[in-house]
Design a protein that fits this description.
The protein is mostly helical. It folds into two domains: 1-32 and 119-235, no CATH class; 36-118, no CATH class. Helices cover 49% and strands 7% of the residues. It has ten helices and seven strands. Strand 2 (73-75) and strand 3 (84-86) form a beta hairpin. Helix 2 (22-31) packs across helix 8, helix 3 (51-60) packs across helix 4 and helix 7 crosses helix 10 (207-220). It binds iron/sulfur cluster (SF4) (2 copies). One iron/sulfur cluster binds at residues 34-40, 118-119, 137-139.
Length: 235
């Protein structure tokens, strides 16, 4: 297959397989800044891990998969096929990898997929919206403040209008978002391959990419209900 055929095949796959709802979620995750409040690292055995997650954790501790499974996980109380859950410890039922004193995840680089995608790419299954604005997440509270301010900014409104007029620019942005997602999931080779095939640049979280993600987010997600959002965490 030559490069043009490869490009065409990829575009067809991309347009048919990636749901439109994923792009505002990726844009939000690009813009999201975690405030390390650790609220998402507490709770009774809720962090599901699949085999791939477990292998990465096992490798980081130089353990076998079976050893890592026994040491760090319990059976999934919801009995999801192929999943275990991270153990919770202590009175607050913290994730076993949370270093409470240092306010950090002890396996940050090897943390499971659910932790990498929280909160914007990981809506609560009971939430009916594309984006869940979690009240306990301090990063979400800051994100909402930023959206309230930027949605009134005339320069941002101009960017939205530019993006709405430029179909090609929009297509490139979606591809870059998808590449960013692969990178975030640790799939560097896949991300580079998509860039080689499509000709898009590897996105960095620089101001141009973030600016376009903000315009895209505000263009696709209504901020009407955001006035009702109230932070309800401990941060
Ligand atoms: S693995 Fe790390 S990021 Fe995930 S819940 Fe545990 S402490 Fe938090
Ligand atoms: S609840 Fe939100 S801000 Fe707090 S650690 Fe989790 S993702 Fe970060």
């Amino acid at each position: 297959m030559d490069l043009n055929e490869e490009k065409e095949a990829f575009r067809e796959w991309f347009q048919s397989q990636i749901p439109e709802t994923q792009f505002p979620q990726i844009a939000a995750q690009v813009l999201f800044e975690c405030m390390n409040c650790n609220e998402c690292c507490r709770g009774e055995e809720y962090g599901p891990v699949d085999r791939e997650d477990l292998l990465v954790i096992a490798r980081s501790f130089e353990l076998s998969e079976a050893e890592a499974e026994a040491r760090f996980t319990n059976p999934d109380p919801e009995e999801r096929v192929g999943y275990r859950v991270l153990k919770s410890i202590g009175p607050e039922r913290n994730c076993c990898f949370l270093d409470e004193k240092a306010h950090r995840c002890m396996i940050y680089e090897s943390r499971p997929s659910i932790c990498r995608t929280f909160p914007m790419l990981n809506p609560d299954p009971e939430c009916e919206e594309v984006i869940c604005f979690y009240p306990e997440c301090l990063g979400t509270a800051k994100f909402v403040d930023m959206l309230r301010e930027k949605s009134r900014d005339p320069d941002v409104k101009k960017e939205i209008s530019r993006l709405q007029k430029g179909t090609e620019r929009l297509d490139v942005l979606k591809l870059m978002q998808f590449v960013w997602l692969q990178q975030m999931a640790g799939k560097t080779a896949e991300a580079e391959d998509i860039c080689r095939i499509t000709g898009v640049k590897i996105p960095s979280r620089d101001s141009a990419f973030k600016r376009d993600c903000l315009a895209y987010f505000l263009m696709t997600i209504s901020t009407d209900g955001l006035d009702e959002y109230e932070y309800d965490g401990k941060g």
